[in-house]
Amino acid sequence: MFRLEVRTSTPAWFNLALPLLAIGATLVLCSGLIALAGAGVIEAYGVMFTASLGDSYAITETMVRAAPMIFTGLAVAVAFRAKFWNIGAEGQLLAGAVASCFVGAIPMPGPLAMVLMAVAGAAAGAAVALVPATLRVKFKVDDVVSSLLLNSVIYYALMALIEGPWKDSFSGYPISPPIEDSANFPVLLEGTRLHLGVVVALIAAPLIWFLIVRTTLGFRIRVTGENPEAARYGGIHVERVLISTALLSGALAGLAGVGEVGGVHFQVMSDISPGYGYSGIVVAMLARLNPLGVVPAAIFLAAVMTGAEAMSRATGVPAFLSDVIQGTALLAMLVALLFTAYRIRRVGAAR
Amino acid sequence: MPLPAPLIEMRGITKSFGAVKANEAVDVSVAPGEILGLLGENGAGKTTLMNVLFGAYAPDAGEILIQGQKVRISSSADALAAGIGMVHQHFHLAPRLTVLENLLIGIPGKAGRIDRAGGLARLAEIGRQHGLTLEPDLPVSALSVGEQQRLEIVKALFRGARLLILDEPTAVLAPSEVDGLFSALRSMAAQGLGIIFISHKLNEVRALTHRCTVLRHGRVAGRVDDPANTTSAAMAQLMCGHEIVPPARGPSTPGADVLTLNGISTSRHSGTALRDVSLAVRAGEILGIAGVSGNGQRALAEVISGTRVPDVGQMTIAGKKVTRFSPPEVQALGLGRIPEDRMTTGLVTNLPLADSMVLPRIGTAAFSSRGLLKPDAIRAFAEAQIKAYDIRCPGPMTRAGALSGGNLQKALLARELAFDPKVLIVSQPTRGLDIGAARFIHEKFLDMRAKGCGIVVIGEDLEELLVLCDRIAVMYEGRIVGTLDSADATIARLGLMMTGAEGHS
């Protein structure tokens, strides 16, 4: 018989080992589904790996996909540190995309347009995140529910926009007008889609890490998240910290949308995000809310997404496996987190 | 006279956590009808031993016998089946359910239905037998702390416990409730139950128990066969391994007022409101605030600490008027603050100890500048305090929650005293601490008093206040009903004032 016993201390190597363990368990669990679909497990995972990380082009494609998830992962990690349960990164991303598309369509010098797109997208994401944060601070409304439901509100508002005023009158497609060519983010490697936004995402992670670990705002965010009562007693304005956190989190999620508009799609359409906002939750959890961990976690999920399509073509396993892997990875990580607080002990059969 | 066969016997219990031996070859036995006191300082191994008995930990060595039969207890369900009931310090009740529903949790009814009538009958019977009456249909959230504890005891009896373990049951009770608890425990013992009573309060142990086992550093340090006729000093010596001398409070030479409150009233926001409270604390004096819990002490502590803004009235610290009533403002004026609840208000248990130690002053130049933390300064500060106050922990990056209560209180004391406060406000400074730690805290207060600090001690332990304070003010329903010089104060007189009778001063 086994049972859980409370740990008195957690070994340091656990922080690194846990996500790897969770990913390993996920791949093992999902191999059953691959076998069920009639494909060879090794072969399928092999195709996934080659297609996502096997050569330099594949790596750039994976990085392009990872960029928005780095931003949403950072958004969720920052919010969860303060125990502001922002499930709304998806809506904040869409708001950021719409705002940056609106700005990008205005003719102006390219560099200026890109800066203003980023500012507008971040501001739009922050404004959306402000709604659940204000509802929680002022009226104690549950932020999980309000931030989650707001995603649908934003999504349908976006749909109304591209089916209405933004609709392409020429083709009739529900897509926004494209942004100015000069506002397209520069591509860093000829012949790939690796754009400037990817680099910005990679720089954002250490900046957010610095903010959380080395600034007084980060200190206040951590303390507020762990014990709001002690924070208040210690002179921290808890409501103000929650609002600041929400603004920061929303802005980061908004930047995810900016990158998609400026670097990938150059316009807004209904499927501009295949759930990058929700994937941000998985990314943040795999990273154990550490902003530096967000980068490898986002790259892992991006590799799964990129690889799943190639695997589907090569082996016939449905590409939906990528969603299953994501969900399983989140569950596996939550189980793995249990072992930071508890350990399994073997005990003899009872009586 | 031959002793009755032990109800329960623990033999040679050894349990290690890593390199630390929490219990080493511990023998404990309880006879039917016996109340055994289990004594020891924090960290002596009492809780570990009881967790072994209750099935939460598997011992590394040793055995447990119930009425001479060797048993194996590997879960709380096993313990309950073996007739062992435990009343923890923190209750395990479902607050939204009623008293009766809490009792019936986990008890199989007939054909999937809850046996309400049977439960009511048992509840009434237990109430009659031991004076443990409870209203069956009241939700637990409506019960006082004392009643919740009574429910925990009834729950154990309801499940047929023959041995009842109580972990510091009096820490949460008012003095009058303690008498009720003791008579119930005596009545249970008279009917043949065994009781293990864990406490730091030696006068209670002497009044209640038949026999005591004293633990120190995980081993049995000694046994006391006649607690009623053994002095507290002798028992304290067994617990600590050395003699304990109560601190001597020399004559005070109070100076100017360092803290004044003038006509402070608060709105009835949560808890009892303050009504026209005025008081003054001088440099080099300790002012006690006595009163039955819930008579406005919390609001008073919050106003002084800068976490509640009064509706009317003025407050000064070191001669300067307080205008915003915020923690940074009162701290900047020279106020040191130690909260009532270490774990929930004082510290952040999941973060490193160093973070908790700098928390109230994180925005000051000592620990940050222009929004950036000074990690080296923070670490150096925590390390210096850990050394100066002998806080037992592996280092400043240890999770605060891993420290014992005494060490946490030392850490909270250190984070304030390091800034040489002119006034110190503390609530329940030694609640839950063992004798050694409490002694240390008291000495620090007296040191600060000698250095000219004015100290306000809000407390419910009148004996402590009488030893420590120069003057004692009594609160009743949000007012200060009187202030006595502690030379003139007696427990009886203070007790009378605590019921609202006017004091003469």
Write a brief caption for the model.
Helix content of chain A is 71%, strand content 3%.
Structure, described:
The complex is a heterodimer of chains A (351) and B (505). Chain A is mostly helical and 351 residues long. Chain A contains 13 helices and two strands. Chain A has helices at 14-36, 41-53, 56-81, 89-104, 110-139, 143-163, 196-214, 216-226, 228-233, 238-265, 276-286, 291-315, 321-341, and strands at residues 2-6, 342-346. Chain B has 505 residues and is α/β, with parallel strands linked by helices. Chain B has two domains: 8-240, 3-Layer(aba) Sandwich (Rossmann fold), CATH 3.40.50; 257-498, P-loop containing nucleotide triphosphate hydrolases (Rossmann fold), CATH 3.40.50. In chain B, helix 14 packs parallel to helix 15 (435-450). Chain B is globular. Chain A binds chain B through residues 1, 3, 5, 8-9, 214-220, 222-223, 226-227, 229-236, 345, 347-348, 350-351, and chain B through 17-18, 57-58, 71-72, 74-75, 78, 305-307, 326-328, 331, 337, 339, 344-351, 355-356, 359-360, 362-363, 368, 371-373, 375, 399, 402.
Overview features:
heterodimer; A: 351 residues; mainly alpha; ABC transporter involved in vitamin B12 uptake, BtuC; two-stranded antiparallel sheet; 13 helices; B: 505 residues; alpha/beta; Rossmann fold; 2 domains; 6-stranded mixed beta sheet; 17 helices; 22 strands
Overall geometric form of chain B:
globular
The N- and C-terminal alpha carbons of chain A lie at a distance of 11 Å
Number of helices of chain A: 13
Q: Please list the strands of the largest sheet of chain B in the order they lie side by side.
A: 6-7-8-3-9-10
Estimate percent helicity of chain A: over 70%
Remind me, CATH topology of the largest domain in chain B? Rossmann fold
